[in-house]
């Protein structure tokens, strides 16, 4: 992706940054001149992702973090600030799909796991990012929801519940800080070609493509482009939205 923005001198943080949409967004921030903090729970894959960025001449650090643990989310933000002095932009991206099936087959443990990462993880990261942004007097945050935050579909109640929750968190937090030069928004990706989708079989993919009107999977870079726009001054009047980036999935 060609850099469109000039984020030179700014600091960006991305969670779930080892691969997929998170890595594409970390790269896009770096290519736009930002210093980037990449967070993920697997140290080895995270180190490989950061090595890609630094080999290309960008400034980036790896911070291992399980976003579902508030103390780790707090330590992540503290490490970002200790290293780069501030935090201007954050993309809270880490998420898991969990098992698919009717709600009657879902387990308490599965429900808790999905909500711990997808909902509590966003809350914990966003809370500590906002504490820092309030101190420094500004910033922009984008949370990762999904088409699953906007519509219901069979066989994925826990995942869609967590992604609907992300939009609730986003709207409330956006209003908490609306007058503080901080904007909080969310993106709602459609079905994107990333490792998360590897478990989707041929029949299910066909069904998804019938709904994703553009007729193809999305690319991780297309979500990154939306995140960077929401973080940019071009979106200065935009707050509390859940922006569909879904090839028309939720239009009909
Ligand atoms: P992905 O390829 O599976 O990447 C997700 C990354 O998040 C992985 O590196 C994963 O690490 C990390 N992660 C998971 N739990 C974590 C935790 N507790 N703490 C820190 N990192 C954690 O997924 P993706 O497709 O890029 O998805 C990124 C986001 O977009 C997710 O929130 C997802 O729900 C959302 N989304 C994706 C799609 C899609 O079609 N791909 C559609 C709508 C929304 P591990 O290897 O340790 O799990």
UniProtKB/TrEMBL annotation:
Keywords: Oxidoreductase. Pfam families: adh_short_C2. CDD domains: SDR_c. InterPro entries: KR_dom, NAD(P)-bd_dom_sf, SDR_fam. Residues 10-198 form the Ketoreductase domain. SUPFAM superfamilies: NAD(P)-binding Rossmann-fold domains. Belongs to the short-chain dehydrogenases/reductases (SDR) family. This is SDR family oxidoreductase.
